[in-house]
Amino acid sequence: MDRSAVHVRPATPADVAQIVAFIRALADYERLADECVLDPAALSDHLFGPRPWAEVLIAEVEAVPVGFALFFPTYSTFLGRPGLWLEDLFVVPDHRRAGAGGALLRRLTEIATERGCGRLEWSVLNWNQPAIDFYHSIGARLMDDWTTCRLVLA
Fold first, then answer.
1. Which member of 135, 136, 149, 152 is catalytic?
2. pLDDT, tens digit, for every residue of 62-88?
3. Is 75 a catalytic residue?
């Protein structure tokens, strides 16, 4: 596939079902399907309601959605600048290695730059070598000295 054939656009409310499908496919890939309990209506409200919590970019090839990136703002006290956190990046298996992931990250980098962000950050599962290799190839630095903490709220 021609990498220039990948088009990246902001998601709209009409994309919620596709975003849910991408999230469920990502959960399957990450071996976490049992933890994927999202409510599509809540997701729609969180993305497009009166107080959006996150944004989504959709990658398309010939108007067919092939991947997505979900992200939200962060803030670095050390930099004294905003940043973006990439929560999810997923490309359907048939379209991997064809430029969709890179196109999503390029657009996200452009958005971060336009917004005056000092950082774009994300995490990767330590067993996901294809993703790790891809992130290294674009110049990302893996932060091995940090451990993610999670407090699950009811």
1. 135
2. 999 999 999 999 999 999 999 999 999
3. no
